[in-house]
Every structure is written in structure tokens, then in C-alpha cells.
Amino acid sequence: MSYQALYRKWRPSEFDEVKGQDHIVTTLKNQIKADRIGHAYLFCGTRGTGKTTVAKIFAKAVNCLHPVDGSPCNECAMCRAINEQTSMNVIEIDAASNNGVDNIREIRDEVTYSPTEGRYKVYIIDEVHMLSIGAFNALLKTLEEPPSYVIFILATTEAHKIPITILSRCQRYDFKRITIDTIAGRLTELIQRENLNVEDKAVHYIARAADGSMRDALSLLDQCVAFYLGERLTYDNVLEVLGAVDTSVFSRLLRAVDSGAFVEAVRLLEEVVIQGRELSQFVTDFIWYMRNLLLVQGSGDLEDILDISSENLAALKEEAEMIDNEKVMRYIRVFSELSAQVRYSSQKRVLIEVALVRLCQPSMEGRQASIEDQVAALSERLGILERRLASGAFIASGDGGAPLGGQGNQGYPGADAAGNSGAGVVYGAGDGKNALAANDRTHLAGALPEDLKAVIGEWGRIISDVPMSMGIMLKSAQVAAGDGNKLILGFAESMHKAYFDQEAHRRELEKVIAERIGKSVAVVPTLLAPEKEQSNDFFIPSKVNLSGVDFSFEDE
């Protein structure tokens, strides 16, 4: 006898062998035992979950001469005839290729004849959603009032395409996706029967790659075993056959993206391409990895749900402590969009590289991105600047007041090859011409009222000298001269005021102003009352005289 594929060889022949659909199996067995058998059933669910298999077992059970607990005995003449596909009582129809009115009329004519043996004639119509409207109409009357000896079992993966008039005449059963543990258990059982040598880790990966389909899992196992025939099938072997990527690559890629190391991220992608991995699967697996990371950040006690080993869970927890969950959610959104695009694209690698640029350099997130991505990108950029401020690397503008927002290879807006801002210099680093030495700034004279008026008059130019993130906060501010050398900033939003309540941010702005006028100014942030916000007598809006500066995320 020629070789038979595993999914055909080990197709369940009785209800007890069906895995992952206990809610359906129990109901059907109870109906058979109580002799409460319906005349029309609709089996819905994704591919490979057991719809046709259960339909065939049910057809045997209702005709079995000696049923055992509602399940067929597989030994009587009726069971053997159905197993050998020689029974005239079970008729299988593929609606994808027999979807016309004439095909259904043939069924309507046949049902008038009672079975020659057994109790029931069972019609199994697979992919029933492929029937034409005329065919559904032809089936309707027969389905509504069939002879007492006829049972219809309709199977479909797209129940929403079936007319409601058909749905209302059937008992509907939804087949669930089979869990990874259930698939892995079934695979282990069959591997032992086949005397195969397969690593447990490989079995679990195949079970996860099957995406809830037992048939897909058996097909993947068959494919991997055939490639390494006579050898031990390991996890690495499975990755090689299926074109998948080891999770360690995802960890390295995530670290590279989080640190803004675009070159390192592209090199990792190059490794994946050279190894011949499937890029669509790579994107899907990376999303799955980040999903696990997000769940770990929510709660560390999820080993059963995540279905990963203790070693991988420990590594995932370590990763979760190093990256902010808002970043992870943004990464998932970007790669989810990419997953839909890359599936049918002929330039998959280019699309992935563009996505990596978006992740590594948030300042490149354009206005075409969603509001959530724009906000997340801005949050990342603010976080980067705050870390640099905390480390003592303060950014100021250069001589020409160059526009902000250039791209650097450190992932910071405007960073050059050395990691410095393309818009200026780093205080305390190098010999920047406009940077005031710390000891010089401490001896600056305080600003006078006329100096503060000059600051207000030059406010647009001053805003152009500050880092982009600070410029965004100052964009809606109103400015006024206070007592002594105090410069009062009025904000309508408490979030903007809170930004300058932080000493590091105030000091940064004061340094920029000091470089402009040569005198020290004390910035005082305040929250405007609604009535004061609308008054132009005291405060001067900072949005005037911006010298052509275009801040990101400006309203259309």
C-alpha cells in the first residue's frame, strides 16, 4: 500500500478520538443515545478543526448496528461500509464544484428514495457557502421538511455567507480553534505510535504554528519528518524546514529598536534573509513575541497562557523590565499594519526596513500615521531627551538657528554621527562657539525690564533655538515680563506647565535665553485662568513671529 499522509491515516474514527471539541461531541452523543436526532446540522469553524470528521462519525453513529455510548462501534457491516466509502447511505458533496441549481435538484430527487440498508441517508455538503443563490433556494424546501430518514450536515468556514433562511432551519455548532496544548498532546501520542524521534520543543512549535488546526499540525509534522527522515527532529530542524526564526533573534531585534540602533536592526534582518527565512512568518512571529512581552509586563504569572518554557519566560521578564509598555504597544501597531501589507507584496524586505526606520527613529513618524502612533512617537522622543538631560547632555541651537528634526544614527532627533544634535551643540562637550561655560553663566547679570521686553520681541527666534520637544510645549505658551529678571510663561494646559515645572527643562530654556541676550533670566511657569487666557493685555502669545519653524504634529 502506498504511503498515506498522517492527517488521513490518523483521522478520528469515533467520537472519543476527536480532540478539542468536547462541547460538540457530548451534545451529539447525547442526541444519539436519547434518539433525539435532528434533520439538519450546520458545522462552522476554521479549517482543520474537525467539521467533516465529526460529520462522518455522526453518520456512522446514527446507522451503527451496535453503538457504544453514542459512538460507532467500527465493527458492524454498516460502520465498515462507511469507513471503506462503499455505503450508499452517506453521500459527500463538495459545494465548491457542485454549486449549481441542477446539483441540488439531483439531491432533492434522490431523497425521495429510502435507504436500502441502515436507518438514515446522510448528506454531507462541504463548503456549503459556495452554493449559488438559486441552489440555496432549491435546497430550502427539502431542508425544511425532509423525509424522516434523511439528515443534512452542512459544513462551512464562512457561516456569514449562508442565507438566514438556511441558518434558521439548522442546528448550528461552532468548532473552536484547538489549543496548543491539545494539539501538542495529540501529536505526541501519534509520534509514539509512529515510532518517531521528535524533540518536545519541536512538537510545541509545530502546534503553535498550526494556528488552532489539527490537520495543519499533522501536515507540518509530516513535512518536517520527511525532510529529516530517520533522524531526530529537533527544534532547530523545524525552524529550518518551516522558514521560521529563533526567538533569540527577536530579543536582539527588540533591543536594537529600543536603543534606536537602526543599522544593527537591518543587519539582523539581513541575517534572517540570508538564512532563507520566510519574511511573512518572521513578521507574524515578532508580533507574537511582542504580545507575550506585553502580557508579561501586565502580569508575570502567565506561564500557562504564554505557553513558553521557564527559561524563555525568565528572559522575557528581563526584557519586559527594560522597555516601556507604551513602546511595545506602538511596535505591535506598526508591525500589525506591516503584516497585512507584506503578505501580498513582492518587496517584503523593503517594507520591513521602512517599518524598522519608523520604530528606530520616532522623529520620522509623519502626519500620515495614526494619532496613537504620533502620540507614542512624541512620547518616545520626549523620553530620549529627558534621559539625555538627566545625563547632563543638554541640547542647544547652533549659530545659524538651524531647523530642528534632522536624523541621526543614535535615534535622537537631529543627532549627528557623534550623537550630538544636528541643530546645535552639547553643553559641556567639545568647544561649541555659542555654548556658555558653566562658570561664565554663574556670573551673568540679571536681566532688566528692557531685556525682558527684548526677549518677548525675539520670542519666535528663541523658540527656534530650543529642542523640538520643548518647542512643541512652548508653541501655545503666552509670555510676559515679571518682577526683576523673571520671565512668566502662561499655559492653558496643565501638562505643558508640568513640563517646565521640572528644573532640568527650565534650566535648558534659561540657557537658550541667556545665550541670546547675555543675561540671566528666571523662567516662571504658571497656569492661566480661562478669563486670563483670552486676555491679550498682559500676555503675548508665543505663536507669533516663529520665523518659519514648522513643529511636528501641528493641527491641520
Average predicted confidence as pLDDT: 78
User: Assembly type of the shown chains?
Assistant: single chain
Beta fraction of the residues?
Answer: 5-15%
Main beta-sheet strand count, sense and barrel state: 5 strands, parallel
What's the N-to-C terminus distance? 71 Å
Rg, nearest Å: 35 Å
- Total DSSP helices: 26
Q: What is the number of E strands? A: 11
Low-confidence stretches: 393-442, 531-538, 542-556
- Classify the secondary structure makeup into a structural class: alpha/beta
Shape: elongated
Please describe what this structure looks like:
Mean pLDDT is 78; it is low at 393-442, 531-538 and 542-556. The chain has 556 residues and is α/β, with parallel strands linked by helices. The radius of gyration is 35 Å and the shape is elongated. The strands form 3 sheets. Strands 2-3-4-1-5 form a 5-stranded parallel β-sheet, with helices on one face. The protein has a 4-stranded mixed β-sheet with strand order 10-9-8-11. Strands 6-7 form a two-stranded antiparallel sheet. Strand 3, helix 6 and strand 4 form a beta-alpha-beta unit. The chain starts with 5 loop residues before the first helix and ends in a 15-residue tail after the last strand. The chain has helices at 6-9, 22-34, 51-63, 77-83, 101-110, 133-144, 164-167, 180-193, 200-209, 214-227, 235-242, 247-258, 262-274, 279-298, 303-306, 310-320, 325-342, 348-360, 371-390, 438-441, 449-457, 459-465, 468-474, 494-501, 503-517, 530-533, and strands spanning 40-45, 90-94, 121-126, 150-156, 171-175, 395-397, 424-426, 478-481, 486-491, 522-527, 540-541. Helix 5 runs parallel beside helix 6 and helix 14 packs antiparallel against helix 17 (325-342). It is built from 26 helices and 11 strands. 37% of the residues are buried.
